[in-house]
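Request: Have a read of the protein record below and say how the chain folds.
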Amino acid sequence: MKDSTLLTLAAALAVWAGAAWAQAPDPAALSQLRGAEREQRLVEGARREGEANVYTSLVSEDMAAVTAAFEKKYGVKAKYWRAGSEKLLQRAITEARSSRFDVDVLETNGPELEAMYREKILARVSSAHDADLLPAAIRAHRQWVGLRLNLFVQAYNTNLVKAADLPRSYGDLLDPKWKGKLVIEAEDFDWLAGVVKGMGEKEGIKLFSAIAATNGLGTRKGHTLLAGLVASGEVPVALTLYSHNVDRLKKKGAPIDRFTIQPAYARVNGVAVAAKAPHPHAALLFYDFMLSPEGQEILQNANYVPTNLKLGNPVTRSALNFIDPALVLDESSRWEKYLHDLTRGR
């Protein structure tokens, strides 16, 4: 086939693809459907579309449980691609800037979703379950919503540290008995910023600088890895782990337990619908399912903290400080540098 013919064919296909997408319903408009009509129309449309494509940072086995339940209930395929939040953000931005519209639903960390909002990748949508969600889960711009809470906790190896000796405040970490025993997850600069600002920034920086100088602060990258190192005894005390990482290992009999130096902090992980979702009905149907009591119960059974208050999770009724994802984006370089300076790459 001649080059000119190939170019003509490629151009025609591009025009056809653009026209096909242009005819797809707008997710924002579809999301205004209410009541029984909403689910009925979304199910009918989703079955015509055939599938929902999801990009997620959720642990694969847990997302597999969610998609299996969704497929069983609605008869609509849910395919997912799993990656860490940074890679997910990179892929979403790269595809959007190259006008490649493959993704329907995005599930990942709050700061990365906030970055996608600023990149105009997301749709302003509402869910059938918005009224049941934790107020802190609702963003003012409505382009993503909190799905689950990553509750920051401290953890210790129960063979190496006695419960009676645990620190009750961050000031207690100045005690020489903690020398060489303290580790923080390498990318939890947002937690550090939240804690320091909560103390009063000047005093907070002074305290953590003193802790690092006196007893040292090590780092490990990855919350799952760090939890495993605490359980194995390589790390006596971790200052930043997610509660579900600790609870899973403890349930399996590992010598690990958690405690919380007050006030407690949580990072909101969220879910969003792509502005140019290729399967808008399926996208909204899956979005609703993840926020529904049924979908949220699957996450709660996997030790996550759901944002739907109908599940009555006690954590959502406790006093929590929420890390602001917009602030994390705006001040990330500053707090990343401070964390690196504290740990000096250890």
